[in-house]
Amino acid sequence: MTKVPSLNYDKVIKALKCDGWVIVRQRGSHIRLQKHIENETLKIIVPAHKPINVQLWLTF
């Protein structure tokens, strides 16, 4: 298994924005982003932590 690097949330958000994701809201330390593709809306929540716990990403 390859190792997943630990990243700060701001770098993750920046990469997602480059891919077309848009921040729709933030509540506490949870930032919600959405991306519209064809007939559906994708949603993701990024925890505003430095660094983001790698185990959180591996559960999805």
Structural summary, described in words:
A hairpin with a 2-residue loop joins strand 1 (22-27) and strand 2 (30-37). This protein has one domain (9-58): Metal Transport, Frataxin, Chain A, CATH 3.30.920. By secondary structure, the protein is an alpha+beta fold. The longest helix has 10 residues, at 9-18. It has a three-stranded antiparallel beta sheet, covered by helices on one side. It has helices spanning 9-18, 54-58; strands spanning 22-27, 30-37, 40-47. It contains two helices and three strands.
CATH architecture term = 2-Layer Sandwich
Main β-sheet description: 3 strands, antiparallel
Shape descriptor: globular
State the end-to-end CA separation: 16 Å
How many separate structural domains? 1
What is the CATH class name?
Answer: Alpha Beta
Query: Largest beta sheet: what is the strand line-up?
Result: 1-2-3
Helix content: 25-40%
In terms of DSSP E residues, the strand content is 35-45%
Q: What value does the Rg take, in angstroms?
A: 12 Å
What's a quick, concise take on this entry?
A hairpin with a 2-residue loop joins strand 2 and strand 3.
Topology of this protein?
Blueprint: H1 9-18, E1 22-27, E2 30-37, E3 40-47, H2 54-58
Antiparallel strand pairs: 1-2, 2-3
Properties at a glance:
three-stranded antiparallel beta sheet, alpha+beta, about 60 residues, Metal Transport, Frataxin, Chain A, 2 helices
